[in-house]
Each structure stands twice: as structure tokens, then as C-alpha cells.
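Please check this today:
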Amino acid sequence: MGQAQKRATQKVSRLAGLIVFAVFLMMALLEVGIRVVLYHPVLLKYLPNRVLIPLRDIYANQIRNIVQDDPSMVSFDPVLFDRLRPGRSRFSNVEFNTILDINSRGARDSESALNHPQVVLVGDSISMGWGLSADQTIAHVIEERTGFKTLNAGVSGYGTVRQMKFLDLLHIAAPRFLIVQYGYYHVFENEAYFLHSNSLPIPDQATFKARLQEYRRERGWYSQFYSLGFLHFAFFSQDNWNFSKPEKGSESIADLFLNVLQHELRPEFSQTQLIVFETDYRSVDRFLIPQLDRWLSNPPLGASAILRHMMTVHLRKIIRDDDFYVLDEHLSARGARKVGDAISEAILKSASAKESGISSRVR
């Protein structure tokens, strides 16, 4: 090898080394910057959307603890697939640090709340109070505002079908009011129920264990490098925080929802006032509520009384983006207070109308 070629090789090697060093330096700076922002949530509100969106993706896929995927918080159930473990556990994420107290039947409430509640709230993590202390949940606000004993039966991950099945497993008397929360993803559970002749297929315990193991694998070594997740999102991912109406067949979202209630609500609930609201980060009155309102304007003759007289609570003009956590898609304490207040107003108005002998569908 000649001297000129040798010098050229050395020059290329030095350049390659500088490039590798520069890449590692940039990755290190990016990693530090992401960690500073993620673990100091007060800074998040100052970030533009183009930066916030990949940070949310990192949080959701690499950092966030999930109740229904944590074996210390859930156990397998042949009817519900997963069920909250009775007892006390700590549930925390970047933006909150909370305690979950679960009663003997798997609801986030006291044992005494199971004894003849006047109001029962069923739903998913929004109703359960993900990221909220017990005295900040929607159920607590309802009880505080109305004076009616209220049971919080919201469970993270449950769609309408499992909400109704969980309600049945609670073995409680029919309450005066049943509040049902609807979220974006519930349509998939409701559709599966419809497509399987009004029966929800529940995977076996081996599948449950495999899901928990997959969750742990996803939180492995790779998840500790946030810069890799940031770059992966920037170049290969789409914005998972912009959602459109779920693609479906001939059955509408309302049809699927009503079908579940028609088949799963026990006959003794016929005198219960049903109240429905729709909220999560992705949908506030966007999908179900408009369709329910149209259905209620002219319900079919064969519909049960509890469905024909159900009430819908409208939240679109009440809930804003800043009523949710910045990284997490769940309601903040302020958002839960707003929802609880709106539901309480509907409950009190309905109770007043019934006491005066007026049949009214409050919106």
C-alpha cells in the first residue's frame, strides 16, 4: 500500500470515527433532553405538538404502567379475562402517583359501597379513576354532589360487554341510577359480542399469562432508550393520537351498544334510570352520543323501557383538551370533577322529575 493510499485510508477512518462520535453525542444529548422533559411534566405544556406527539408515543409504549397488564394488580377471570385484585396497591406514572383500594369483588371502592348503592357507575379506566386519588374520581364527585350512595364499578380496559358482566358479578340490588361510560375502543368488544351471537369470546388463562409476559418484554432494555423510540416514531410511525371513526360493518356504534344492554341488563334493572356519557382522550360525544340521541328521538316499539327512557349527558362543551393529563390520555382531577358535576345535574334533575311525576329525558 502506497503512502498516499495509506493516508487516504487513515483520513477516511478518522472521518468515520468523528461521524460515529457525533452520532453518539447527538443521541446522548437527545436522550438527556427527552428524559428532562418527560420527568418534569411542568415543561410539557410549553412544547409544540410536533414534539409532544412523539413524546406521548414514547410514554405510551416504553414508560407507562398499565393496570390490566400488571400481575400485582389483576388476576385471570374466566368471565372477564382480567379482574382487579382485592387489596391496596400503588399505581404511578410520570404525571401521577396514586393508591388503588380494591374491595373483595374487584371494584375500586369500599366494602360498604357494595351494600345497596343508589348509584352505580360502570366504565373503563376513566370511570375507575386512572391517575386520580379516590376522592377525585367521578363516582366520588357524584356521591358528594347528589348525596346518593355511589359505587365505583369502573375497571380499566372494560368495554360495554364486560361492564355489564362485571355488574352482574357484583351481586348488588338494582340501583336507582346506572351510569354507563362509553369510550372509543368499546366498539370492538361490542362488535365481537354481536358477531359471536351475543356472546363474548374470552381467551384462556394461558393467553392471559402470555399477555403479561409480553408486557414485561416490551418494558425490557430497549424501552430504556427513549431516543430510539423518538427516532422510530419520527421516521416510521404515524400519529396514534389522531383518531377517526372506527371502521365498521352495517351495525352502527349505537346498535352494538344497545344490543349489549338489551341482552345483558338483568330484568330487575327495569326500573333503574340509565344515564350514558362518552369520554376519553379520543372521543367526547364524538361517536356514540349523537347516534343515541337520534335513536332516542324515535325508539323502536320493541325496545325495553330502560333503554327507551335512558338519558345522555353531553360533555363536548364542558371538557377541553387541558382537562386531561398532557402525556397520559386520562382525565385530570379537574376533568373528572367536570364530568361528575354534569352527571350529578342529570341525576338530580331526573330525581326531581320523578318525584313530581314528570317523565323527562334530560340531556
In short: The domain at 67-215+243-355 is CATH 3.40.50.1110 (Rossmann fold). The longest strand covers residues 87-93.
